[in-house]
Amino acid sequence: MTPSTGGGGAARTARHYIGGRFTDSHDGATFTVTNPSNRQPAGIAARGRDKDVAAAVAAATTAFEAGDWARAPASQRRSALFRVADAIEKRAADLAAIQALEMGEPIGEAAEAMVARSAWNFRFFAEEQELAANQSYNLDDRLITYTLTHPAGVFGLITPWNGPVMLSTWKIAPCIAYGNSAVHKPSELAPLSIAMLAEILDGAGVPPGVYNAVHGFGPEAGAALVEHPGIAGVSFTGSPRAAQDISRRTAGTSKRVSLELGGKSATIIFDDAPLDEAVREAAAAIFSNTGQSCVAGSRILVQQSIYHEFLARFEACAERWRVGDPFDPDTVIGPVVSEAQYERVKAYIELAGTEGTILFGGVAPRDDGLFIDPTAIIDIDPGARVCQEEIFGPVAVILPFADAADALAIANDSSYGLAGYIWTGSQSTAHSVALQLEAGMIWINSGFARDLRQPFGGVKGSGEGREGANHSRAFFSETRFVSFPVGRFDEAGL
Question: Active-site residue numbers?
Answer without folding.
Answer: 260, 294
